[in-house]
């Protein structure tokens, strides 16, 4: 029997565990992939050395930011926010029934769950700017195309996370209702969805922040919002106006993010 | 302790067709050895049966099998006169509309009001959006739920959020939800395990005074030997994967029950 007092006889565990041969090969392979990716991305130390003077030149030429077009840019920023809010709101509303179909063990069978999750995966995989191009072709230039792009992007994001939230919800209340003979849809609506509401609110606020960020660049492809002003300013080498647009985007995105943090804390008591 | 001195003691139930009949039941999860096997027993109408056994003996699993919430690996279950094997979704729901479950964790929907939670107990009999939330519920459902809350002395808390109740209050609401649809059979899985001793006593006394008044068949699990002997008409003991004991409480004492845990 081991003497409990004789601790000196025991070997002290190593601070860092020695990796297995397979793990070592894995680390080596990961490092090679990263280096290969840098090469593919055109990493150039020489060009990086020349960047600061060029950047300083841009800053000099763009300073002070233009204020003469603030009224017009302000209206475009309002349109940007309208695209984001309308797109995110519609996207969140449409996400709920889609998420109900995507969540495993809720109202639909495994085949439907898989099909809906694949569809949501496609929605997320295609970037919002690509969706904007598609909708510009479908409905023409302007903010409506941008809003539709945000709707699709939001469904891809919220649909998946709402489904995950519902799958992770406490199963106890659902089991209690199942034992009384309730139908699956009744159980989802009465127990699973209310239990998932804090997570839904958090996800929806992230979706809104994401939509605001996205909507600022959709104008680059003619889908409305302030992005078009940024493109035109750069095309015309009007760097002071470009700097004003960049500043406005930064302020709006930061303000929306802070509002999101405040709202999450206020509504569901979570700060993250 | 004499049987006739028990709080809320009742006359021996008249034996009719059993509300629950279990024959040769076994349950294994995946390739693991069976948690229990060859379990057979019956529960008569109006009977209160205590199921005892150590942690991991399979008490909760057995009760969930009995309600058709988990499929057994072998054996047959007859619930309220209907064979569960091969029962379709609609028939299963119709059967479950006569049953209820009171769980250790109370299992209320935390963000909803007490009243909404109790109205949910009617979903087995009344489906649809009007029963999802108290604000949408028909007057009759609201009144029925309030009457159930009155029975557990929680009517004053009808508008309070379920996650703002104490443990004892929460379990009272869970009992109201289980009783609101006037079930014929109730499963109570360690209903007092998460409560302090005083609240546990109070909840058990209340629960059994209500189910006895309404002649509901009850199967409950408990680690509290006093509860098993005080509130059960009969005791089933599950241990070492088998049903080790099936006897009326009159023939048992706490010392004999403790042997189940050895």
Number of separate structural domains of chain A: 2
Number of helices of chain A: 10
CATH classification class of chain B: Alpha Beta
Structural class of chain A: mainly alpha
Radius of gyration of chain A: 26 Å
Sketch the major β-sheet of chain B.
6 strands, mixed
InterPro entries (chain A): MetI-like, MetI-like_sf, PhnE/PtxC
GO molecular function, one term (chain A): ABC-type phosphonate transporter activity
Subcellular location (chain A): Cell membrane
Membrane topology (chain A): Multi-pass membrane protein
Description:
The complex is a heterodimer of chains A (272) and B (262). Chain A has 272 residues and is mostly helical. Chain A has two domains: 21-55; 70-268, Orthogonal Bundle (MetI-like fold). Helix content of chain A is 75%, strand content 0%. Chain A has ten helices and no strands. The longest helix of chain A has 33 residues, at 70-102. Chain A starts with 20 loop residues before the first helix and ends with a helix. The mean pLDDT of chain A is 90. Chain B has a single domain, classed as Rossmann fold. Chain B has eight helices and ten strands. Chain B has a six-stranded mixed sheet with strand order 6-7-8-3-9-10, sandwiched between helices. In chain B, strand 9 and strand 10 form a beta hairpin. Classes of the chains: A mainly alpha (272), B alpha/beta (262). Chain A binds chain B through residues 170, 172-173, 175-183, 186-187, 189-191, 194-195, 197-198, and chain B through 67, 69, 92-103, 105-112, 116, 120-121, 123-125, 127-129, 131-133, 174, 177-178, 181, 183, 187.
